[in-house]
Specification:
The chain is an alpha+beta fold. The chain folds into two domains: 6-41, no CATH class; 63-127, no CATH class. The chain has helices spanning 38-41, 54-62, 90-97, 113-127; strands at residues 6-7, 13-14, 16-21, 28-34, 64-69, 81-88, 108-112. The chain has a three-stranded mixed β-sheet. The protein has a two-stranded antiparallel sheet with strand order 1-2. The protein has a two-stranded antiparallel sheet with strand order 3-4. The radius of gyration is 18 Å and the shape is elongated.
Length: 132
């Protein structure tokens, strides 16, 4: 195994360390080493992999995970997550949305905040807590 050292404009070794975030829920899931500094990546970290964290992996095995994103994020490849999500059964998904999923393998969807509030407000009251 080898480690590649990135070099700055002066030819000096450059090594950055950043928090690796889950691309689904945004929670920290490890540390990443790379050629960018924290100033370039951001203090909160960044998504470096499409692999879900253990919690999201479990959520997607047991149901369909719907993550709330900020309004106005439609069509954005990496929308801003609010931190809330809900996991529902496939049967509930079909009943709530009255349509089968187009992609039978997908266990994850984004939903804008205003719609998330309308669709899941009652469930969140009954459940007594948000997942996040």
């Amino acid at each position: 195994m080898s480690i590649k050292l990135f070099k700055d404009s002066n030819g000096q070794p450059k090594l950055g360390v950043a928090m690796s975030l889950c691309g689904y829920c945004g929670e920290p899931m490890g540390v990443a080493l790379g050629g960018k500094s924290i100033d370039e990546i951001g203090r909160k970290g960044a998504v470096f992999s499409n692999e879900p964290c253990d919690t999201c992996k479990h959520n997607m095995e047991t149901g369909i995970m719907i993550v709330e994103v900020q309004d106005g994020q439609e069509g954005v490849s990496n929308p801003y997550r609010t931190g809330r999500y809900i996991v529902i059964t496939e049967e509930s998904f079909n009943r709530i949305f009255k349509m089968p999923k187009k992609d039978k393998t997908s266990r994850f969807f984004y939903m804008e905040e205003s719609l998330f509030e309308r669709v899941f407000a009652e469930a969140m009251k009954e459940g007594g807590k948000d997942e996040k």
